[in-house]
Amino acid sequence: MKFSGKRDSEDGTVSGSALFGRHPLTEPLSDVGDVQFFDTTLRDGEQAPGVSLSPDEKAHIAGLLDDANVDVIEAGSACTGPGERKTISRVADLDLDATVTSFCRGIKNDVDLALDCGVDGVDIVVPASDRHVVDKVGTSREENVQDTVELVEYAKEHGLWVEVIGEDGSRADLDYLEELLGAAMDAGADRICWADTVGHATPDGAVEAVSRLSELGPVSTHTHDDLGLAVMNALVSVAAGADMVHGTINGIGERAGNVALEEVAIALDHGYGVETMDLTKAYELGELVANATGMPLPPNKAVVGANAFTHESGIHTDGTLKDDAMYEPYPPEKVGRERRLALGKHAGRAGVEAALEERNFDVTDEELGEIVQRVKEIGDRGRRVTDADLITIAEEVQGAEHDRRVELLDLTTVAGGGTPTASVRLSVDGEERKEAEVGSGPVDAALNAIQSALGHAADTHLESYHVDAITGGTDAVVTVEVEMSRGDRTVAVTASDSDITRASVHAMVDAIDRLIADDSEHVIADD
User: Fold this and answer.
1) Most buried of 132, 335, 341, 408, CB within 10 angstroms?
2) Could you say which DSSP state residue 172 is in?
3) Strands, DSSP E only, in 392-508?
4) In this structure, are 416 and 449 located in the same domain?
5) What is the pTM (predicted TM-score) of this model?
6) How far apart are the C-alpha atoms of 263 and 231, rounded to whole Å?
């Protein structure tokens, strides 16, 4: 048989030993009770290549994790150096509800350094597989157990919460792993952790290991995504007795990354009614971590990706407009999101009409048909139909003229020598304004100059910025797409030019113009 399970009824439920609760070593996930989260974004997540978080960024992320009711926050690894210890101390001083820990190797000095940082606890990683015990550390199994016991006793004597992690646990001899972590519990450790350090484990291996370790005391699970099984391995670990899941926001981490906490949280909540973190903070956390680490969110990522609640297909859009749940497993508000209707070659009349209504356009059936046709033509050329595109099309079809309130008259930028500088000359409600500013680059300087010229009355924010080269060579034409917001309104605009700075500024100015178009008040300069 291709499938070992047996269908029991017409509703498609399946019996067999493969599903949660049916395996003899697991219980149904809906019956597991309390599951806690251990966030290692600030330590394991920061070990992703090219990622380095500043003290301000770590403190900001830690504060939001605490707001989201994450139980344990690993602030870093005190042995890294003075700068890291200063950052860990800053997080420890935030007076969070969460338990704040430092990662420690199996070395007494690492525990001392963690104590100096004022943390609540330590996560002590000790070798578990022979590859690590013998080849990496150069010790014996017996000495490794004894060293672990002594280190746990030392940490507990100093009032620390202690978790012991068996490194490379998924490739360890299970009998030895049980002996090692059992000795740690006997020495006073608060909990032990099964670690799939290199993303080696399959779900059946996770079940076997965690079910045995859970007999020793409270057990955590630490999974990586090298086989694309991180979420599955975390879930089966919980079913097998783990009551804490290690992970990172967005799944960032070494190689293919850690398990994404927001994905485990929604799977447990939506699938089994098990609450973990405050899911309404998931998107805010995802955006914060993506921006701080410079690792943008893939559009198709579960929970926090741009496309997770975006509908373009005419069939899907029409269905969603009739019933929010038609093509979504759970409402976007559950994870701090909003639903979006995207326009492109797959757009239908219902979706285009809804998008026009959002932008206060009242069109006839004939006008709607013409607008839909033009939207599809843009989509057929491989372009995304932005808010500005739709508004321009609608105005042209209705014969309406758009009275610009903000227009770029002149732009000058200086870069390459010293501090990047930009000066702009704008027409704002018929009034000419000039400003010059500096920035991290010419585009940043230009945006700063635009915002200075407009003043706080405009109150616009750049949400996203994307560049694509659409021709080859050194004189390539680039298309810049920006998404800007003002209050609860957001617009996306594209502009093309051989000069990336000029394309960027034109797109930003057009977006700002659209955002303030319906504002009856004059845009007053700060001075």
Assistant:
1) 335
2) S
3) 406-414, 421-428, 431-438, 461-469, 478-486, 489-497
4) yes
5) 0.75
6) 7
Q: Which of 398, 428, 453 is the last residue of a domain?
A: 398
Whether residue 289 is found in the same domain as residue 316: no
Q: Determine the straight-line distance between the first and last CA of the chain, rounded to whole angstroms.
A: 78
Q: How far is CA 357 from the centre of its chain?
A: 31
DSSP state for residue 246 in the 8-state scheme: E
Same domain for 392 and 333: yes
Tokens of 434: 């000039």
Whether residue 302 lies inside any domain: the answer is: no
Burial of residue 44, with CB atoms counted within 10 A of its CB: 0-12 exposed, 13-18 middle, 19 or more buried: buried
3-class DSSP string for 104-135? EECCHHHHHHHHHCCCCEEEEEEECCHHHHHH
Residue 100 lies in a domain: yes
Q: Do 78 and 154 have their domain in common? A: yes
Which domain CATH number covers 443?
3.30.160.270
Q: What is the pLDDT of residues 35-54, one digit of tens each?
A: 999 999 999 999 999 999 99
> Is residue 146 a part of any domain in this protein?
yes
Residues 216 and 123 grouped into a single domain:
yes
Query: Where among 352, 374, 398 does a domain terminate?
Result: 398
Contact call for residues 16 and 22 (beta carbons, < 8 A): yes
Tens of pLDDT along 291-329? Answer: 999 998 998 999 999 888 876 555 555 555 566 677 788
Q: How many domains does the chain have?
A: 3
Considering the domain boundaries, does residue 319 fall inside one?
yes
Q: Where are the beta strands (DSSP E) in 377-460?
A: 406-414, 421-428, 431-438
Q: Are residues 287 and 326 in the same domain?
A: no
**Could you give the CA distance from residue 173 to residue 317 in angstroms, rounded to a whole number?**
53
Segments forming the whole domain that contains residue 58: 37-293
Q: What is the largest CA-CA distance in the chain?
A: 84
Does residue 428 sit in the same domain as residue 368? no
> Taking the CA of residue 81 as centre, how many other CA atoms within 13 Å lie in the half-sphere pointing to its CB?
1
| 355/352 Cα distance (integer angstroms) | 5
CA separation for the pair 173, 240 (Å, rounded)? 19
Residues 6+ apart with CB under 8 A from 143: none
165-205 pLDDT per residue, tens:
999 999 999 999 999 999 999 999 999 999 999 999 999 99
